[in-house]
Amino acid sequence: ALRIGVLALQGAFIEHVHALNSLRGSECIGDVVEVRTAAELRSVDALIIPGGESTTMALIAERRGMLDELREFARTRPTWGTCAGLILLAHRAVHAKQGGQRLLEVLPVTVSRNQFGRQVDSFTATLDSPCLGEGAAPFEYVFIRAPAILSADSPEVQPLVRLPPGRGQAGAEAGADGLLVAVRYRNILGTSFHPELTSDNRWHRYFVQMAAAT
Ligand code: GLN
């Protein structure tokens, strides 16, 4: 069974813990633990980096002296970044905080922070998600000051879900296919939405299965 950690420095970590606990029994989940120190990070097999505020999360991690270990972990072990967590994992962020922000730079994508506007511009979209299984029912995606993936910067980045044009997004970046909101790259899953805020735990199952196979 896998010991799964949720980075609990800041943001929406408790909801991820609940979503993982809801899968216990049906999936190969052992312990589900909150990770706040480098030692705790070393104890887990897989890690979720939650949504929240990417600049703040990076600052806290740095202050706790765990930024380099986080980078090392995410480079090789099953890691899922949602929203702010996706930004942290990215190689590059545009519309980033002035003066720059620390990124782990392990996922070769370019993200746009706050692509869809401010908190009040949060929205949901129900989209087909074939990666969740053949004939899977559509999933309801929650976007809160969400980033979008503007480009996949390696052929190894697999696109999983796109937000069709005209759904909560402005700007030419969207293109005809829409913006990428979920990708897989080696041991990394990156999603710009908040799957932990719905009772549908299929994305958590996807990650656990991916972690078990890694
Ligand atoms: N826009 C936030 C950031 O830059 C992320 C928002 C979220 O995680 N809901 O970190």
Automatic annotation (TrEMBL):
Q: What does it catalyze?
A: L-glutamine + H2O = L-glutamate + NH4(+)
- GO function terms (MF aspect): glutaminase activity; lyase activity
**InterPro entries assigned:** Class_I_gatase-like (IPR029062), PdxT/SNO (IPR002161), PdxT/SNO_CS (IPR021196)
According to UniProt, the name of this protein is glutaminase
Q: Which PANTHER family match?
A: PYRIDOXAL 5'-PHOSPHATE SYNTHASE SUBUNIT SNO, PYRIDOXAL 5'-PHOSPHATE SYNTHASE SUBUNIT SNO1-RELATED
Similarity field:
Belongs to the glutaminase PdxT/SNO family.
Annotated Gene3D superfamilies: 3.40.50.880
- NCBIfam families on file: PLP_synth_Pdx2 (TIGR03800)
The catalytic activity of this protein is classed by the Enzyme Commission as 3.5.1.2
A single GO cellular-component term on record: cytosol
Q: Which organism is it from?
A: Coemansia javaensis
This chain is encoded by the gene named SNO1
